[in-house]
Amino acid sequence: MFDATLKDRKQSFDSAPGTTMFLHWLVGMVYVFYFASFILLLREVLRPGVLWFLRNLNDPDFNPVQEMIHLPIYRHLRRFILSVVVFGSIVLLMLWLPIRIIKLLFPNFLPYNVMLYSDAPVSELSLELLLLQVVLPALLEQGHTRQWLKRLVHAWTFTTGYMLDLHSYLLGDHEDDDDDNPNNNPPDRHNNRFPGLGEGLHAAHQAILQQGGPIGFQAYHRPVDFSLKIVLLVIFMCVTLLLASLLCLILPVFAGRWLMSFWMGSAMVHELYTAASGLYICWLSIRAATVVLSWMPQGRTIILTKVHEWSLMILKTLVVAVLLAGVIPLLLGLLFELVIVAPLRVQLDQTPLFYPWQDWALGVLHAKIIAAITLMGPQWWLKTVIEQVYANGIRNIDLHFILRGLAAPVICVLLLSLSVPYTISIGITPLLGVTPEMQTLVERRIYPLLMMVVILLAVLFFQIRQFKRLYEHIKNDKYLVGQRLVNYERKNGRRMSTSSHSSPS
User: Fold this and answer.
1) Less crowded by CB within 10 Å, the N or C end of the chain?
2) What torsion, rounded to 10 degrees, do the Cα atoms 472, 474, 476, 477 define?
3) Which of 202, 233, 394 is CA-nearest to residue 313?
4) What pLDDT, in 10s, does the model give residues 109-126?
5) Cα distance between residue 322 and residue 333, in whole Å
6) Neighbours of 334 (CB within 10 A)
7) 481 beta partners
């Protein structure tokens, strides 16, 4: 997929073993996470009991730490081998085989353009973290995207179930909830001792162990040639996963390359940018199509009114996105570059090079982290503004409130943090008659120095406030009775009383 040979992988591991292992671990964790998320979505669609061989992570009785302690080693080894077989088979089915098919059908489409060796600091790490922490969560956390995927899975299950006569096995018999008819479950009439004995081996085991009906299991109708139909179902599922993988590997990258060609021309662009752009194009296209189809029955006038409202809303959203997702992350990433990256990586006799794209990518990550910390912190104006903007949403977006309450203060603080040290080092330092070496030292070290001063002042003010709270707590605990201070006089009051007693004498 990336045209990397074993020699390239060995060279990459020899040059940076820690980074290589971390990236492989990160990709594997993301793969396992989204696989588990898809399994949870399948449990919402399928009949309870279909996925009995997979653990339910939402089960309140599921305690992996307790199982890790109590179960024997061979059970853990068996589960580990089963997980490796399942995950490895899916990787071969959804990555290795589609890549071979793409190379056979579209020889010029692969490999993906990935700059494995770049002079830009933290280039690959920032781009991959940007994709994993910003792009994918922004797409997958959308309620519409999850509902689309759920409906698509339900439609595929419904169609396949009726084609193979497995509708009862996959989705259940919702219309036969009551058991008034004695012919509903004739095989189970003589199994009153162990409920679930005629509902499959796993259900019977669960019923015996729990001495009752199996938890999370629903009866189904067993058709003729059940084993053969299950094999056909697995084959259809593998073919569907293969086609879906081909579509996901080709369509977003193709759409992103087509979009980037209008801007970058024939230049090679990192495929993370093209894939992210393509994902957003596909998502916006599907969303626009569904919205227009929902407007069609309302008439032409309503459609024109809705288009005007949505055009105005999209224009406001673009202005907000340029400021909050463009200007603020760029300034934040540039400040991080000047404060931390440049002093650590560049010597005083060298000239630092700045990469706006990398600074913006790092700034997006830092802005997300700062926003999360702000929302978890105490109540202050920035948290209130962010919560208000989130509560309003896109449809009720207030451009004036966002510009005045959020964008303008943050941009002013970042611009002051960038311009004040630059003005001091470039404008004031030469007037003092220092040497060129000292001027270079001031230019390169003034940003971390001022940042340390600001941090020390913040820590000092925080400690002073904490000592004041401690002093008030001790004072109230010692002298406060109800709502009144007793046996307590301030120093000024004591001095005045002393002077008044001494003046007549």
Assistant:
1) C
2) 160
3) 394
4) 888 887 644 444 445 555
5) 15
6) 19
7) 484
